[in-house]
Amino acid sequence: MALMTQPAAHLPTAHPWPRLAPLAGWLILQLLALLLPVLQLPLSDNFTRPAERLAIEEMLTTQIAFAALLMPVLFSNCSTSLFVIACTWPFIQLAGTLSATPPTRILLATAYLAGWLALLTAWRSILRTTRAQMIGVAAASILSIGAALLWYLRVEFLTQQTDPLWSRDALLGPILAALAILHEQPLSFRPWLPLGIALVVSVSLASWIEIRRRRAAAVTSNPTQER
Q1: Percent of the chain at pLDDT exceeding 90
Q2: CA–CA dist 56, 96 (Å, integer)
Q3: How far is 91 from 63, CA to CA, in rounded Å?
Q4: How confident is the model at residue 152 (pLDDT cuts 50, 70, 90)?
Q5: Where are the domains of the chain?
Q6: Are 96 and 51 in contact, with CB atoms under 8 Å apart?
Q7: Cα(75)–Cα(32) distance, rounded to whole angstroms?
Q8: Are 51 and 40 in contact (CB under 8 A)?
Q9: Alpha helix locations (H) across 70-173?
Q10: Contact by Cβ (8 Å): 64, 178
Q11: What is the largest CA-CA distance in the chain?
Q12: What is the pTM of this model?
């Protein structure tokens, strides 16, 4: 009797689209932020003219704010984090060229943004559960968007100050620190101080947690090593 053989079942393969969608959205967000000054779209009645003079400020604000909001999906692993960080550079360069920002300031702002994205990567590595990640998103959003909104309301309605005091305002979150790097005269280390401390602490904690996870996995896979 001839043996009847069953055809091999094809294992389902994960579709790459769920992983590519956040990265595509990240690129589209930056493109839209770049189109605002190019199309001369004013964001307020007293908006700076020509609009491209604020191109790099709009770009940095968009990148910092949306990176905080999309932290769980943009920084899910090392490769996507590197892609997210790398693709911000050409957009900042283009925005800086439109706004006629000095190259040194563009370079420093790019480095600061990379530090902020690296900090979010470390937070995403530490926060593994969905609930913890949502708490991380809330904290990053309050730190970036919330602090910038409070600063704007204070300058717009509560004080008569026409020019920001960057030596003080640079400590009010990453958006204000990035803007201080563009405008503070002379440039100081103050905008970098909170980010540097948070980055060192977060990377150290993420590394310690990863080492413990790997040791626990090694013990689980080889119980004879456990003492």
Answers
A1: 52
A2: 5
A3: 10
A4: confident
A5: 50-222
A6: no
A7: 21
A8: yes
A9: 71-74, 78-98, 103-126, 130-141, 147-153, 166-169
A10: yes
A11: 96
A12: 0.84
DSSP letter (8 states) at residue 131: H
Q: Is 205 strand, coil or helix?
A: helix
Residue-wise pLDDT tens digits, 174-216: 999 999 999 888 888 889 999 999 999 999 999 999 898 888 8
Contact at 8 Å (CB) between 23 and 86?
A: no
Phi-psi region of 40 (alpha: psi -120 to 50; beta: other; left: phi over 0): left
User: Confidence band (pLDDT; 50, 70, 90) for 5?
Assistant: very low
Interval 14-45: pLDDT, tens: 454 556 788 899 999 999 998 887 766 655 54
The whole-angstrom separation of Cα 144 and Cα 61 is: 9
Based on C-alpha coordinates, what's the Rg of the chain?
Answer: 22
- E strand or H helix at 160, and its extent? none
Residue 139 tokens read as: 């904290």
Residue 64 near residue 116, CB atoms below 8 Å: yes
Q: CA-to-CA distance for 123 and 119, rounded, in angstroms?
A: 6
In the chain, the amino acid numbered 211 is I
Nearest Cα to 124, choosing from 196, 54, 209, 219? 209
